[in-house]
Design a protein that fits this description.
With 290 residues, the protein is α+β, with helices and mostly antiparallel strands. It is built from nine helices and six strands; from the N terminus they run αβααββααααββααβ.
Length: 290
């Protein structure tokens, strides 16, 4: 029996079930999915809805520090954007503050546990029929963040509802020109939230997550959009290669607006305003007023 790995898969199934008025246990024609086991029949731990909380935004950097290197390695090995995966982890886990994302569960991406022998039950919100609905769902548990990130990569690479067609192939680096293409593709497919992509883009920009991305081996990378074309390992030498003079700064490989703003103790908004920027795209050699 097929299992639902993401909220988007669950949502698509429920929509098809409603439209076609299928009875429980009937297969969904053309999707490769079947009715999932009824949640109440699965053993697991019940967690109160109130425990599924989010920490303040300042916890985000702590989680990034914990998973950044692992995400970069796993993403590079799977033709994926580490920046997108980290942003998904931040969004799905509430900056690492949700019960589900913490020990002993380590589930960063909200992966459902329909086939897990010992899932944990949590209240979660799903976007159904144009409104948010709270549902009690079983979620998978892991032994570490590494396991959670690795399985997430497996989901993005191997999920298929039709023979020979990878469901999330539009989010792979080799099939995109930037992380924005990947986040746009995931919206409505991986998650039901219609603003999912814009939320991921904000997190990637705000926390300079493109520093964890490595170049695609299957597509041509650009030299102007530094945030999507440089290796994460390059950032280790930024401090020795960067240059600043008084109130100006020269952009080097691996830089991001967030990183530069943090270095000079100003906000990203202020840095953008100082330089008349309307996006987070910066170029090597560009002079910025700080």
């Amino acid at each position: 029996m097929e299992e639902f790995k993401t909220r988007g898969q669950r949502r698509r199934f429920q929509t098809l079930e409603k439209r076609r008025k299928l009875v429980s246990g009937a297969a969904v024609v053309g999707t490769g999915l079947a009715i999932a086991p009824v949640a109440l029949t699965l053993p697991g731990t019940q967690v109160e809805a109130a425990e599924y909380n989010y920490q303040q935004a300042d916890a985000a950097q702590s989680l990034i520090n914990q998973i950044g290197s692992t995400a970069s390695q796993i993403a590079a090995a799977n033709d994926l954007y580490a920046s997108v995966m980290i942003a998904q982890a931040l969004l799905e886990s509430g900056n690492g503050g949700s019960t589900l994302s913490q020990a002993p569960y380590y589930n960063l991406f909200g992966v459902k546990g329909y086939s897990d022998s010992n899932p944990v039950y949590l209240a979660t919100q799903e976007y159904l029929d144009g409104q948010w609905v709270t549902m009690n769902e079983p979620f998978q548990t892991y032994n570490s963040y590494w396991e959670s990130i690795q399985e997430h990569a497996n989901v993005l690479k191997s999920t298929s509802f039709a023979s020979g067609t990878a469901h999330y192939s539009g989010a792979w680096k080799s099939n995109t020109s930037s992380y924005q293409d990947a986040t746009a593709y995931l919206t409505g497919r991986y998650a039901t939230d219609p603003s999912y992509g814009s939320k991921l883009n904000y997190l990637i920009s705000a926390y300079g997550l493109t520093q964890y991305d490595t170049p695609s081996t299957g597509a041509t990378t650009t030299t102007t959009e530094v945030s999507t074309s440089v290796s994460a390992t390059t950032t280790t030498t930024d401090s020795s290669n960067s240059s600043s003079t008084g109130g100006s700064y020269t952009v080097v490989a691996g830089d991001s607006l967030w990183g530069i703003a943090s270095k000079y103790g100003i906000s990203v908004d202020q840095l953008m305003a100082n330089n008349g920027l309307t996006s987070d795209v910066i170029m090597i050699g560009q002079q910025l007023s700080v």
